[in-house]
Amino acid sequence: MMQDKHYLMIPGPTPVPPAVAAAMSRPMIGHRTDDFAAMHKRIVERLRVVFQTGNDIFILTNSGTGGMEAAVANTVSPGDRVLALVTGNFGERFARIAREYGAEVDEVHFGWGNCVDLKAVEEKLSSARYKVVLATQNETSTGVVNDIAGIGALVGKTSALLLVDGISGVGGIEIKMDEWNVDVLVTASQKALMLPPGLAMVAVSPKAWEVVAGNKSPRFYLSLPAAKKACEKWNTAYTPAVSLFAGLDAALEMMMAEGMDNVYARHMLMARATRAAVRALGLEQLAPEEAASPVVTAVKSPAGVDGDDIRKVLRKEYGVTFAGGQGILKGKIFRIAHMGFADKMDVIIAISALEMALARIGQPVDLGSGVRAAQKVFLGGNE
Amino acid sequence: MMQDKHYLMIPGPTPVPPAVAAAMSRPMIGHRTDDFAAMHKRIVERLRVVFQTGNDIFILTNSGTGGMEAAVANTVSPGDRVLALVTGNFGERFARIAREYGAEVDEVHFGWGNCVDLKAVEEKLSSARYKVVLATQNETSTGVVNDIAGIGALVGKTSALLLVDGISGVGGIEIKMDEWNVDVLVTASQKALMLPPGLAMVAVSPKAWEVVAGNKSPRFYLSLPAAKKACEKWNTAYTPAVSLFAGLDAALEMMMAEGMDNVYARHMLMARATRAAVRALGLEQLAPEEAASPVVTAVKSPAGVDGDDIRKVLRKEYGVTFAGGQGILKGKIFRIAHMGFADKMDVIIAISALEMALARIGQPVDLGSGVRAAQKVFLGGNE
Question: Using CB atoms, which residue from B21, B217, B243 is nearest to A218?
Fold first, then answer.
């Protein structure tokens, strides 16, 4: 395999565009300067377009999990009742963080590969008074996208706050924070936003602020009131990851130039082509079609085959990296990301490499049939 | 002023060497890969040389304050008695974090510009039983370096843990974690380690682990037990800032090639030259000579002059950025960093620009006299 010919197709970190890498390589600047403040302001204004919100958005220097913890630490106090809507690994993590902060967590698990059932949410919400509801927009571990609009419509009728982990979705899957009643929306840099890991973005609704301001859990580095105070002058409470901010500025510039509608359509097209190819190869996707993620496709390993063996061949022979299964799905699925700095040819690479890897491990495969199915979607696709 | 001719001389973020910028621009890799694990292991082994320790070292994706909070959240529970040795802004911050976690904090403030008085520490330690002692190695806000060896010798005789904020010192000022009885040592990427901000390093002694394992404060993203478990396979508990890790790997490679003794000698030489130049210009340094920092020199503004006015001229006319005063020292001092990717010519630039800026604002100045004093130190210096 040729040196440096690598194709990273995991659901984060995702490949970094050259323009973003160049921006991050600019000479360092101080973070208490007018130049930094101007960049910070521009970034937040553009993130508001992505989040479809007029709310405060804070950029924290930590990875997505730190953003999830910021959402919890600033809204949950010991003894609070929390409803956790769980569809996989990251939903479980959100619930675990709430328990760490002393919440009484009602965890409703919809099963790995399924999406949140709105009827169950409605029943739960009418059965008890929750302070906070936790949901995952895109469950990366299963390639399932949840109906945040539907969940938000239900939670919005109650006094509960809706906290959404949008880490692997935001920027690749449309979200309307304000219209959908999302109170705290969390995302991170290394997914659809096309950056290396290291930044989390946390947006906060006015309804959430009423709770955040007086919340009793300890919080210092992840304090949203501290972030808000600093942000009044486009400052940050603590030293920001300056080079990642510069990269984010460049990435958002690219996204604005493409137009968010086009960004979302590109992701949906790649996902449709990937699913068509998977079907053509006689493989089965994990998620139901109606809840299949636009940014990552989870595929069941053929009977008797360990998905990790397919991944090893892909990486070693073709330089292609897929993600494996997490938790109970380890070895049983592999996941193909089409997220961020990715377009049609990346799908072609993924599928053709998959075809060859299947052949290499002795699986029956009609070489080129998956690629052809993807091509048909692209040729007839809604570009 | 020519475009892109900037000289960043603040005590973090510091300039990034070209080799480090290049390493950070390498294509993204997954963080659950053998390549990442090998890099992670190499980084920790080299950090052990810098920290002079055999202890566990964890690299957290957040800025230094997050590292300070990790130190506190994993060792302090509500009601614990904490002794905070404060010599400026960052000592105050450490104490504030401990209070946020419910500690009863005895805050001993030695005054802005002074260092910790060991006699006072000895008295305090004999007067009460503390669970934790907080100290700052290099108080960035005043350009004062504290005697961690002396503090550690005293604290080591008690059951208390010594938590040291080494954020602006480690890598530029020698520290011997094990020999000096430091139990938790925190540093960050954007100072003497020559990286952009975004990483904190936290080292933990066996004595500290006994407390950390069962500590009762909420901690998830900043959990040291979670970091330890992941680190067994050179993994990280949560998604790491991959590009900053790659940069850290390259920066440590540079430091190992130079040799840590040479790194420390270079910083001390720059500091001596800066102080000689400041004196030759008739200006006064804030710190007493015996506690003057090797990595940042705080200089009192001339009588009747606002230090921020000098800084404005420096930045606008010469592209040189010094730091201002913080807290009660705002406007009263300016701070010249000689930290990280800095050598003799950076001192010459700083001093000659300072001479011209003083002339510009109408202060009497013997042009070239500061530069000459620095040159003499370099020519007679202990290289």
Answer: B217
Using the Cβ of A113 and the Cβ atoms of chain B, whether some distance falls under 8 Å is answered with no
Q: Where are the alpha helices (DSSP H) in chain A?
A: 18-24, 34-51, 64-73, 89-100, 118-127, 148-155, 206-212, 224-231, 242-258, 260-280, 307-318, 344-360, 369-380
A28 in B contact zone (CB under 8 Å): yes
**Distance in angstroms (rounded) separating the CA atoms of residues A76 and B89:** 30
Q: Is B327 on the interface with A (CB under 8 A)?
A: no
CA dist B56 to B31, B127, B239, B253, Å? 20, 32, 19, 20
Coarse DSSP helix, strand, coil percentages of chain A, rounded to the nearest 5 percent: 45, 15, 40
Min Cα separation A153/chain B (Å): 30
Nearest to A175 by CA among A265, A338, A261, A52: A52
The domain segmentation of chain B, as residue ranges, is 7-13+260-380, 18-257
Digit-coded pLDDT (tens) for A201-253: 999 999 999 999 999 999 999 999 999 999 999 999 999 999 999 999 999 99
Q: What is the CATH number of domain B7-13+260-380?
A: 3.90.1150.10
**pLDDT value, residue B383:** 37
Q: How far is A265 from chain B (nearest CA, A)?
A: 25
Place of tokens 């290499």: A360
CA-to-CA dists, residue A26 to A36, B25, B318, angstroms: 13, 11, 19
Q: Which of B14, B31, B242 sits opposite A28 (nearest CB)?
A: B14
- At B318, give phi and psi (nearest 5°): -125, 0
Contacts of A8 in chain B (CB under 8 A): 27-30
Facing B244 at nearest CB: one of A10, A27, A198 = A198
Which chain B residues are closer than 8 Å to A65 by Cβ? 220-221, 238-239
Residue A176's φ and ψ, nearest 5 degrees, are -120, 90
Best A35, A62, A190, A222 member to test B by mutation, with max B CBs in 10 Å, is A62
Instruction: Provide ipTM, 2 decimals.
Output: 0.91
Structure tokens at A247: 């990269």
Q: Which chain A residues touch B101 with a CB distance below 8 Å?
A: 218
CB contact under 8 Å between A8 and B15, yes or no, is no
Residue of B nearest to A219 (CA): B100
State pTM to two decimals.
0.94
Chain A CB within 8 Å of residue B243 CB:
yes
**Same fold for the pair A7-13+260-380 and A18-257:** no
Chain B within 8 Å of A214 (Cβ-Cβ)?
no
Q: To the nearest whole percent, how much of chain A has pLDDT over 70?
A: 99
pLDDT, tens digit only, all 383 positions of chain B: 788 899 999 999 999 999 999 999 999 999 999 999 999 999 999 999 999 999 999 999 999 999 999 999 999 999 999 999 999 999 999 999 999 999 999 999 999 999 999 999 999 999 999 999 999 999 999 999 999 999 999 999 999 999 999 999 999 999 999 999 999 999 999 999 999 999 999 999 999 999 999 999 999 999 999 999 999 999 999 999 999 999 999 999 999 999 999 999 999 999 999 999 999 999 999 999 999 999 999 999 999 999 999 999 999 999 999 999 999 999 999 999 999 999 999 999 999 999 999 999 999 999 999 999 999 999 984 43
Give the closest of A13, A28, A190 to B16, CB-based.
Answer: A28
Report the distance separating Cα A83 and Cα A95, nearest Å: 8
Percent of chain A with pLDDT over 90: 97
The domain at A18-257 falls in which architecture? 3-Layer(aba) Sandwich (3.40)
Q: Which one of B1, B61, B223 makes the best mutation probe of the A interface by having the most chain A beta carbons within 10 Å?
A: B61
